[in-house]
Write a structure and sequence with these properties.
This protein is α+β, with helices and mostly antiparallel strands. The protein contains 1 helix and 8 strands, in the order H-E-E-E-E-E-E-E-E.
């Protein structure tokens, strides 16, 4: 009987340790990010990549949101290795901004894209796209 109890404890111990490790994980993660951005205006070719001034990315795991470049973006999926976020927002003058991004939690690399569109322009309402390729610490 004692052997069975010890076996049960040994089998359950990794589960308890994993749950404890996740419970200790911060629910708000703040990163300082540096890298490049590449703008594209309308249907034109991408412009030369530009240095992005140091910026913050804040991830709130409790509220399932990412704060990036002044936007609050819903988290779509999150696991130990990555955070994927995306959504659409209406900004000044009725313009729409679509935001998609991915953060590799192991390397700190973030790949994100914002697309600004003017719904009054047809057939292509997209007026500006900015691709961000940054490393966050």
């Amino acid at each position: 009987m004692r052997h069975t109890t010890k076996s049960a404890v040994l089998v359950l111990l990794p589960c308890v340790l994993i749950a404890h490790a996740r419970a200790d994980e911060p629910t708000v993660i703040t990163w300082s990010c540096e890298g490049m951005l590449t703008p594209i205006y309308g249907a034109n070719k991408p412009e030369a990549p530009q240095l992005l001034q140091k910026t913050s990315v804040i991830v709130n795991l409790d509220e399932q949101i990412v704060f990036f470049m002044g936007y609050l973006v819903p988290i779509e999926t999150v696991d130990e290795a990555s955070i994927n976020f995306g959504g659409m927002q209406v900004v000044d003058y009725g313009f729409n901004v679509a935001i998609r991004g991915h953060v590799d939690r192991l390397t700190g690399r973030m790949d994100a894209t914002t697309v600004l569109s003017d719904p009054t322009k047809e057939p292509d309402p997209n007026t500006a796209t900015v691709h961000y390729d940054v490393v966050c610490k």
